[in-house]
Automatic annotation (TrEMBL), chain A:
Organism the protein comes from: Aegilops tauschii subsp. strangulata
Keywords: Isopeptide bond, Ubl conjugation, Ubl conjugation pathway
Keyword Ubl conjugation: yes
Organism domain of life: Eukaryota
Protein name: Cullin family profile domain-containing protein
TrEMBL record, chain B:
Official protein name in the record: Defective in cullin neddylation protein
Membrane-crossing segments per the record: none
PANTHER family to which the protein is assigned, alphabetical: DEFECTIVE IN CULLIN NEDDYLATION PROTEIN, RP42 RELATED
Highest rank taxon of the organism: Eukaryota
Domain DCUN1: 1-170
Protein purpose: Neddylation of cullins play an essential role in the regulation of SCF-type complexes activity.
Gene Ontology cellular component annotations, sorted alphabetically: ubiquitin ligase complex
Signal sequence, start to end: none
Pfam families recorded: Cullin_binding
A GO molecular-function descriptor: cullin family protein binding
GO biological process annotation, one example: protein neddylation
Species per Swiss-Prot/TrEMBL record: Aegilops tauschii subsp. strangulata (Goatgrass)
Length: 704, 179
């Protein structure tokens, strides 16, 4: 004995089913009338249980369906009857009722759900209830259209700035989702997206007529944020991406070109004026737009190339190499900042920038020389009092970035060597440490061979100093002789320049265009010690025998080349505080008809006066040709060596492949000209290192 | 050794002009090392290869020897032979004047419309000796590239001198190229 609820005797009553069903039918009615509290769950459950047990599951199921349909139709009418704004509310109310009812009905009919339904493969009670709601209420012809329209209308109003009942929206979309994701998608999401597309199409059209690029983008950003919020508040999360795509397409993608190219406010304008905020916004917005970033990148790259080209080909700029390079550095700084602040340090943008810089820097074949001159200037003067107070290390690092862009690094090397030599020999470098630093950077970039000769120049200097010291230590105290300073130069390490003749006081020999001397000179009753270059010394020595000389006389007596002589005389006569000579007339430039007088009125606070020249100057045209010619000559053996290396390992190779391989091998130093490569190949054929293949004339063979 | 005078005599006997291209053909048969010189061995082997054993028979053979130039394969061999043969002893390249003379001789028999432009170009722009590679590649050029240069390929690994020649022709409007 225990509680066995199912031990009641059941009669085989012909009216059994009807009686049982009536009980349930009434109960369901009460439920829908919000009168469920008076019902006995246990009894109803038992009733249903018995019906199923007696194999009435099918009939029960069908009756239930009919019953539900009836209630639903009634509810539907109530919803239809609702006026205006109350429509959604009524729908929600009825929905809530229905859900509650279904839950109870499901519980009552649980036995049927668990036994009859699986085997008959019918839809479970709750689910079936939902389907019926969907078909009879939601998709009823009188309700469906109105439902969708109402929802969309509210969304539209909200977009136009009105406040709407978001809770109601939320419940309604939730209802649709519970009816099945396809219901949500087909009945709501799809029309929503369509309507949104046309809304944003209109909005963007208006906006683009009214607004400039920056304002437009701000608006687009605002709209995107709104839509995202909207979804999170009353739609299914999966709609977020879809609506974002719609807005992206209508507001951004379609108008992309027009926006970027907008005069006075588009991308180029933003770049020119460093409009970081606008650029950041643009970058973020166009992340998801097809070709968005690549378009920005390529517009930026061509703008940079264009402005860069103007920079490097402007004749005004070319007059001052240091200024030229400074402008390049400024330009680099500007764009580095843009990429870092606005473009999230995006590597693809950085690469595009680098390619643009590389392109235009090499448009001017004097860039290598000028960059070397810039470094020269900085190493002579140090960076004290520089406008932006960067220390020398930072400046050199930035210069290295420019260096990397150079295609003709070997040309840079040649100039750097010349300039370095001048600095070292004239003692004009402001910091040894900075010099060495620069060498380390070059070595890291280009390898040991690049800097080995430069390093040996430093060693020579140290050797010179040590030797000088021991020389003077051993001198037997004759302090009236001219004080000389000797530099030891290892042949091959130092750049040789065509060594002009110069009539030296016979005691001195050596490279005349470098080196310096200390001369004791008397002005009135003041004695000074002048530190001068070799050329300056030669000129001044002439004034030992006379007070006045014409330009022509000086030229004849010293045999210094005119260009150098004029520079030399300028430094002796035209520099305030250093004018040991007086020029007649007092103009700044030296002309052939000038005369020079020993200036006994010269005075200086210092006893030892340094009179500088030997400043590295930008080369004159003939000098430039000369240097370039030497660079070209130097390249030939390098190209040949590369060809031989390649052919030795490959044995047989076609012409174009050789050109490609050679270029690859040498591109760290310079870009070899394919015509030169061809000539070198022919030279190697002539010298029987290579031969053409007998059958295919485009192939070459290595001859061991 | 038959030297210059001997060669001259030979030409007399054969009733040919020393500039006659048939002398080149004969020299080729003889595998003569140098123009206007024949060693005894070269001379004898040569006559054998031609298939004669007397000057008279050689004279009779002249027309057929001349005809050998018309044969493509033989022409190529003769052409390439001519380079080393016309060189000065101990030199690697062929002086320009000599080269031009040889080219005119050879291409007189094998009509090449650009021969005059080629010679003019060399005298105006090049003025240096001709390398072996250039010499042999020129024949390829003549054989494969049409006089309007329509099938000339810049990537064709032609010697740079030939590339320059093409440029020269284009600059001077001698050819219409569809680039």
């Amino acid at each position: 004995p225990g509680c066995g609820p199912f031990k009641h005797r059941v009669e085989v009553d012909p009216k059994f089913f009807d009686k049982s069903w009536k009980k349930l039918d009434d109960a369901i009615r009460e439920i829908y009338n919000h009168n469920a509290s008076g019902l006995s769950f246990e009894e109803l459950y038992r009733t249903a249980y018995n019906m199923v047990l007696h194999k009435h599951g099918g009939r029960l199921y069908d009756k239930l369906a009919e019953n539900l349909k009836g209630h639903l139709r009634e509810m539907g009418k109530l919803v239809e009857a609702a006026q205006g704004g109350l429509f959604l509310e009524e729908l929600q109310r009825r929905w809530a009722d229905h859900i509650k009812a279904l839950q109870m009905i499901r519980d009552i009919l649980m036995y049927m759900d668990r036994t009859f339904i699986p085997s008959s493969k019918k839809t479970p009670v709750f689910e079936h209830g939902l389907e019926l709601w969907r078909d009879i209420v939601v998709r009823s012809p009188k309700i469906h259209g109105r439902l969708v329209d109402t929802l969309l209308e509210l969304i539209h109003r909200e977009r136009m700035g009105e406040m709407i009942n978001r809770g109601l929206m939320r419940n309604t979309t939730k209802m649709l989702m519970e009816l099945g994701s396809s219901v949500y998608q087909d009945d709501f999401e799809r029309p929503f997206l369509e309507v949104s597309a046309s809304f944003y199409s209109g909005e963007s059209q208006q906006c683009i007529e009214r607004c400039d690029c920056g304002e437009y983008l701000k608006n687009a950003e605002k709209r995107l944020a709104e839509e995202s919020e909207r979804v999170s508040l009353y739609m299914d999360a999966k709609t977020a991406d879809k609506i974002a795509n719609v807005v992206d397409k209508e507001m951004l993608s379609i108008h992309m070109q027009r926006l970027f190219l907008m005069e006075n406010s588009g991308l180029v304008n933003m770049l020119i004026n460093d409009k970081h905020e606008d650029l950041t916004r643009m970058y973020d917005l166009f992340k998801r737009v097809p070709d968005g970033h690549s378009t920005i990148r390529s517009l930026m790259a061509s703008h940079v190339k264009e402005t860069g080209k103007i920079l490097v080909t402007d004749p005004e700029r070319l007059r001052d190499p240091v200024d030229f390079v400074q402008r390049l550095l400024n330009e680099k700084d500007k764009y580095d900042e843009i990429v870092s602040v606005s473009f999230s340090n995006d590597k693809t943008f950085q690469n595009a920038l680098n390619a643009s810089f590389e392109h235009f820097i090499n448009l001017n074949n004097r860039s290598p020389e000028f960059i070397s001159l810039y470094v020269d200037d900085k190493l002579r003067k140090g960076v004290k009092g520089a406008a932006n107070e960067e220390d020398i290390e930072t400046v050199l690092d930035k210069v290295m970035m420019l260096f990397r862009y150079l295609q003709e690094k070997d040309v840079f090397e040649k100039y750097y060597k010349q300039h370095l030599a001048k600095r070292l020999l004239s003692g004009k470098t402001s910091s040894d440490e900075a010099e060495r630093n620069m060498l380390v950077k070059l070595k890291t970039e280009c390898g040991y061979q690049f800097t080995s000769k430069l390093e040996s120049m430093f060693t020579d200097l140290k050797t010179s100093q040590d030797t000088m010291q021991s020389f003077y230590a051993n001198l037997s105290g004759d302090s009236d002789g001219p004080t000389i300073s000797v530099q030891i130069l290892t042949t091959g390490s130092w750049p040789t320049q065509p060594c002009a003749t110069c009539n030296l006081p016979p005691e001195i020999l050596g490279q005349t265009n470098m080196g310096n001397a200390d001369i004791k000179a008397t002005f009135g009753d003041r004695k000074h010690e002048l530190n001068v270059s070799t050329y300056q010394m030669c000129v001044l020595m002439l004034f030992n025998s006379t007070d006045t000389l014409t330009y022509k006389e000086i030229e004849q007596n010293t045999a210094i080349p005119p260009v150098d002589l004029k520079r030399c005389l300028q430094s002796l006569a035209c520099v305030k505080g250093k004018n040991v000579l007086r020029k007649e007339p007092m103009s700044k430039d030296i002309s052939d008809s000038d005369a020079f007088h020993f200036n006994d009125k010269f005075s200086s606070k210092l006893v030892k006066v340094k009179i500088g020249t030997v400043v590295a100057q930008k080369e004159s045209e003939p000098e430039k040709q000369e240097t370039r010619h030497r660079v070209e000559e130097d390249r030939k053996p390098q190209i040949e060596a590369a060809i031989v290396r390649i052919m030795k390992s490959r044995r047989v190779l076609d012409h174009n492949s050789i050109v490609t391989e050679v270029t690859k091998q040498l591109q760290a130093r310079f870009l070899p000209n394919p015509v030169v490569i061809k000539k070198r190949i022919e030279s190697l054929i002539e010298r029987e290192f290579l031969e053409r293949d007998k059958v295919d004339r485009k192939l070459y063979r290595y001859l061991a | 050794m038959i030297m210059v005078e001997g060669t001259s005599q030979l030409c007399n006997d054969l009733l040919v002009d020393p500039q006659d291209v048939v002398m080149l053909v004969i020299s080729w048969h003889m595998k003569a090392a140098t123009m206007c010189e024949f060693t005894r061995q070269e001379f004898i082997d040569g006559l054998q290869s031609i298939g004669v054993d007397s000057i008279e028979k050689l004279r009779e053979k002249l027309p057929s020897l001349r005809a050998e130039i018309k044969d493509d394969n033989k022409f190529r061999e003769i052409y390439n032979f001519a380079f080393a043969w016309a060189r000065e002893k101990g030199q690697k390249s062929l002086p320009l004047e000599t080269a031009i003379g040889m080219w005119r001789l050879l291409f007189a028999e094998r009509h090449w419309p650009l021969i005059d432009h080629w010679c003019q170009f060399l005298q105006v722009r090049h003025n240096k000796a001709i390398s072996r590679d250039t010499w042999s590649q020129l024949l390829e050029f003549v054989k494969t590239i049409d006089p309007q240069l329509s099938n000339y390929d810049e990537e064709g690994a032609w010697p740079y001198l030939i590339d320059e020649f093409v440029e020269y022709l284009t600059e001077n409007g001698c050819v219409q190229r569809n680039k």
